[in-house]
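Translate sequence into structure tokens.
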Amino acid sequence: MQPYETAAHSEALRLRWISVQCYEMALPGGRVLVTDPFHLDAEAFGRRGIPPQFAREIGPYLQAGFSAEDFTGSDYLWLNHIHGDHVNLMGKLWHRFYGRVLVPGDCARGVAWIFDIPYAAIYPLYPGNTYHFEDFTLKVYPGAHDNRAFREGKEMTSSAAAQLERMITLETDLFDVPFPNDTTALGAIHNLNYLITTRDNYKIDFSAGRDFEGHLKHVADEQPNLMLRHRIRSLTPEQYAGQLMDMGAQLMLPLHHNNAVAQGEDLNAYFAQVNAVLTARGSAA
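Result follows.
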């Protein structure tokens, strides 16, 4: 008689965080989904000669030891929004893997134009719709960019942003996106959140920016397995843990947590506090 197996595991999902809101996910069946494709190479950035007043703003985004060549695939490229710190690898990945580009509908033509991607490769998405792909089902919800700078009185007006952009004389902007472009305006206005269900019924919720309470109402009955959630700097560990419990997911991974670098924050300590709150509240998440 054949002996019993001593262990078993499921390849429901494999993923790794790259930068900002960029995750590379290996889906059941082998295809790869990349969210908000971005990585800013520290060494290459240093060679660009960016003025110091701009370089300071970019510091939290710089990373070493990785490049676009290290991606294993990008059969699907999806965007929460099109700010430069979410899209700078879009062109490189598309021209290497020729994937399908899933993008907020009002930004579709801009993405095709900026990164020289054929229009037919672009799949415009609109809130309230459900899209059925070979490897997953995608539900799309309205999103809203975080307005922390606005709350703190630091948000630039549209005319001030345009004046700043006119100072850029390079072929790419600060995030190495081909310039000129309209990513500042389009990225602030058009944001989407998502719920993906793989063909093995593994659910992943992706929510970034503000209006989390509104998003919860949209996905009230979904109860995803995994939650990818924006780690807004102003959220206390108690608030962040509360968002996980309200969502009803088993696991949460952060988005945009690179911003902790700007304040010298210890994220290991922060997430240890989040988990301690969950334990104290009797949650197994």
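Note: The chain has a mean pLDDT of 89.
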